[in-house]
Write a structure and sequence with these properties.
With about 280 residues, the protein is an alpha+beta fold. It has eleven helices and eight strands. The strands form three sheets. It has a three-stranded antiparallel sheet. Strands 6-7-8 form a three-stranded mixed sheet, with helices on one face. The protein has a two-stranded antiparallel sheet with strand order 4-5. The radius of gyration is 21 Å and the shape is globular.
């Protein structure tokens, strides 16, 4: 079961800006009900300012929450400001999304792109060179979208691409093509990443979420192989307090496990200056 933030739960149960805008200045439609996720975004734009934004969506709770978050984020913003919003910004606004649900934030960003193109009189659906080649027939995902999402989110694996776009998540026949695109993008990454980038500091909520995910998905399975376990006790700033359980609780080298496994994995997947201490 995925762990959703309170913000996601709130916007799913009480979504903002649901509906349509009569005589909308811009409309962006993405996805398909057949594929499981569909979103239509309506914008009212005056003097290059997004005065109103509404949406209709078919999808899971994360899709509803992401769509609602997007409309809240862009209302009152100038078009040029709204265009800078990334799918990661949408996820951060929600306090984070499970990796398997990041495609919902991408759907919102894609709808915004199409709506603003529509406002400018550009019909993306009629331009193959803009839309790109469809790689995943099951979900209608193009190579253009896959490449964009890889670059913006620094994706490294096919599983990442599936989490962020759904491509490859059904029949799997497109996975070799996704691998080719991924390898091509990773090959060019050093050149693209030559300019120094400022790393965005983690919010407390995001840090806690990543710590919980890393313990659950990475650390605990390793310990359980030897009859051990681990319990997260507290996260205070960058200090993570844990308790070793099972065989690990009585192990003579538990200190080594804490530093060489638990701390190193948290530094790899969360932040490189995380400190792990054992509950006493």
């Amino acid at each position: 079961m995925w762990d959703y933030t309170d913000k996601v739960k709130d916007l799913y149960k009480n979504p903002r800006n649901v509906g349509t805008i009569e005589n909308a200045d811009a409309v962006g439609e993405v996805g398909s009900i057949v594929c499981g996720d569909a979103l239509t975004l309506y914008l009212k734009i005056e003097d290059d300012v997004i005065k109103d934004a509404k949406f209709q969506t078919f999808g899971c709770g994360s899709a509803i929450a992401s769509s609602s978050a997007l409309t809240e984020m862009i209302k009152g913003k100038k078009v040029e400001e709204a265009e800078k919003i990334t799918n990661r910004d949408i996820a951060d606004f929600l306090g984070g999304l499970p990796e398997q649900k990041m495609h919902c934030s991408v759907l919102g960003r894609e709808a915004l792109d199409k709506a603003l193109a529509n406002w400018r009189g550009i019909e993306l659906g009629d331009a193959h060179e803009v839309e790109g080649e469809i790689i995943c027939q099951c979900f209608g995902v193009t190579d253009t979208l896959i490449r964009k999402v890889i670059r913006e989110n620094h994706l490294k694996t096919v599983e990442d691409v599936t989490n962020y776009t759904k491509a490859g998540g059904a029949c799997g026949s497109c996975i070799p093509k996704i691998e080719d695109i991924l390898n091509d993008e990773l090959k060019n990454e050093p050149r693209v990443a030559a300019e120094p980038a400022v790393k965005k500091p983690l919010s407390n909520i995001r840090r806690i979420q990543l710590v919980e995910e890393t313990i659950t998905d990475v650390i605990r399975p390793i310990l359980q192989k030897d009859g051990g376990n681990i319990e997260l006790i507290d996260v205070e700033g960058k200090t993570v307090t844990v308790a070793l359980r099972g065989n690990c609780a009585h192990c003579m080298v538990s200190d080594v496990t804490l530093k060489n496994l638990v701390q190193e994995k948290l530094r790899e997947f969360v932040e490189d200056d995380i400190e792990v201490v054992e509950a006493r």
